[in-house]
Design a protein that fits this description.
The chain is α+β, with helices and mostly antiparallel strands. The chain folds into 4 domains: 45 residues; 251 residues, DD-peptidase/beta-lactamase superfamily (Beta-lactamase, 3-Layer(aba) Sandwich), CATH 3.40.710.10; 90 residues, Peptidoglycan synthesis regulatory factor (PBP3), Domain 2; 71 residues. 41% of the residues lie in helices and 20% in strands. The protein has 11 helices and 16 strands. The strands form 5 sheets. It has a 5-stranded antiparallel sheet, sandwiched between helices. The termini are far apart.
Length: 500
């Protein structure tokens, strides 16, 4: 009996152990299956940690939603380097009256040699060319010339740069010049420079310039000589590097050296994948490692970033008004998807959207031109924008289009005016006919009265009306009419008596 009880107890223990093992195996299998399913959904397993980089500080942020994806000492104050030029470009464009000002020429002064050797004293270039020289080639002289052109002095321009920082809510940035040259008083952080990069990329001129690998500008020495050409090549390692990555199509990058004698760089770039913009800022990074480290951070951000779609690509968001165009009201569509990021403690009810159309659009416009923004707010704070573009060309219209009257509207208005003019002419013609008819009737009555008066006068002569021996005064017209009426009455009375 004792053996049987021990055997039963051992069997129960074995069954319990096997049951636990089966439960563990089943659970692990479900977890593995879930991970495989998640990997198939996202096409990548989300890494747990950001890759290690040599930069002293960095910031990885979504340009579409402002979500902070990864950071390392992002609030550490350091030299901003040539990333400063993004702020310089924004302030120059903000101070411009319109895009036509890009063709204005800027002449270099006597102090231009202090900032480099690209331009000589007395030479001139257009504002647009100087922006390209600064953003593509990182030219210091171009930045200083633009600062002097945009404001009455470089000091005033720097104040405007710092005011722009306050407008963007940046409290850890101070600029002392427009080119980013080393200055012990200047400072910024990776977090602030990421916001500056995000804001700068909303300007179409900056966006187009950062996408260029090289640019050639014309520099005029004086009015009598032929302009010389200067070529600037991009310092963006994604344009100049030999490594092949899926981010070779990056549309923005500016590599700013803090000191030409030190192999240390401040780097900011913005890449777009599946309509999601990602920003990487590296501070005090080894120049030879910039491309590899930025690529690894972009790949990490692509796998980690929150992709909550708010608006689809190609959605019509409204109509833009175009001055001077054959069409003065053209539909605008979202160029890409729009995303929003809400912190875990928030809710989707905090998300709001707004359509902002530009009010200074002038024809001609080309297909794909930006005409406004689809803005995404979270808790009343702007977190991302989507460019609104047009899908048709807008040629210059007729003269009325200057007053926002399209060519079709001009034709319709002209036709209505023609019909109205014909109606007025017809009414005038009818009035003139009626007036002539009334005048004819009036003249006929006058002739009839004159005829009757003549008959009365002849009748008076026959009866010798002035029998009293003296010539009476001719009666007045009213008296003549009364006498004619009385005479007619007497004749009627005589005829009635005869009938009796």
């Amino acid at each position: 009996m004792l053996k049987n009880s021990n055997t039963a107890r051992i069997r129960k223990q074995m069954v319990a152990i096997i049951s636990v093992i089966l439960i563990l195996v089943t659970t692990i299998g479900y977890i593995a299956l879930f991970e495989v399913y998640a990997e198939g959904e996202n096409n990548a397993v989300v890494p747990k940690k950001a890759p290690a980089v040599s930069a002293s500080s960095y910031m990885v942020m979504s340009g579409s939603t402002s979500e902070k994806v990864a950071a390392k000492h992002a609030d550490r104050k350091m030299q901003p380097g040539k990333i400063t030029m993004l702020m310089t470009a924004m302030v120059v464009l903000d101070n411009m009256y319109d895009d036509k000002e890009l063709k204005n020429t800027v002449e270099s002064g006597d102090k231009i040699a202090e900032y480099g050797e690209t331009f000589k004293q007395g030479e001139s270039a257009s504002v647009g060319d100087l922006l390209n020289a600064m953003l593509v080639g990182g030219d210091v002289q171009a930045a200083e010339l633009l600062a002097k052109y945009s404001a009455s002095s470089r000091k005033i321009f720097v104040k405007e740069m710092n005011s722009k920082c306050m407008e963007l809510g940046l409290m850890d940035t101070l600029f002392t010049n427009a080119s980013g040259r080393y200055d012990i008083k200047a400072y910024s952080t990776a977090a602030d420079l990421a916001v500056i990069t995000q804001a700068a990329y909303r300007y179409q001129v900056i966006k187009d310039a950062l996408a260029k690998r090289s640019v050639t500008i014309a520099v005029a020495e004086n009015k009598s000589k032929k302009p010389r050409e200067i070529e600037f090549r991009s310092t963006d390692p994604f344009f100049t590097g030999n490594e092949k990555t899926e981010y070779q199509y990056i549309k923005g990058g500016i590599l700013g050296l803090v000191d030409e004698t030190v192999n240390s760089a401040q780097f900011a770039a913005i890449a777009t994948k599946d309509d999601m913009q990602m920003i990487v800022v590296l501070m005090d990074s080894a120049k030879e490692n910039t491309l590899r480290e930025a690529t690894s951070l972009f790949e990490y951000a692509d796998a980690k970033v929150t992709k909550n779609t708010i608006v689809k690509k190609g959605k019509m968001a409204g109509h833009a008004r175009v001055r001077g165009g054959a069409v003065t009201r053209v539909p605008a569509y979202t160029e890409t998807k729009g995303f929003a990021y809400v912190p875990p403690e928030g809710s989707d009810s905090l998300i709001e959207t707004q359509v902002a159309m530009y009010d200074d659009l002038n024809a001609p416009l080309s297909k794909g031109d930006k005409v406004g923004e689809f803005r995404i707010y979270v808790a009343d704070e702007l977190k991302g924008t989507v460019d609104l573009i047009i899908k048709e060309d807008v040629p210059v219209g007729w003269y009325p289009s200057r007053f926002y009257i399209s060519n079709i509207a001009t034709i319709v208005i002209g036709a209505l005016l023609f019909v109205f003019l014909v109606f007025l002419l017809r009414v005038g013609h009818v009035k003139r006919r009626r007036a002539k008819r009334r005048e004819a009737i009036r003249r006929a009555r006058i002739r009839e009265l004159a005829r009757k008066q003549l008959e009365i006068d002849e009748d008076r002569k026959r009866r010798e009306w002035n029998a009293s021996g003296y010539e009476e005064m001719p009666p007045r017209t009213t008296d003549i009419r009364k006498e004619a009426i009385n005479e007619e009455a007497r004749k009627r009375g005589k005829r009635s008596r005869r009938k009796r």
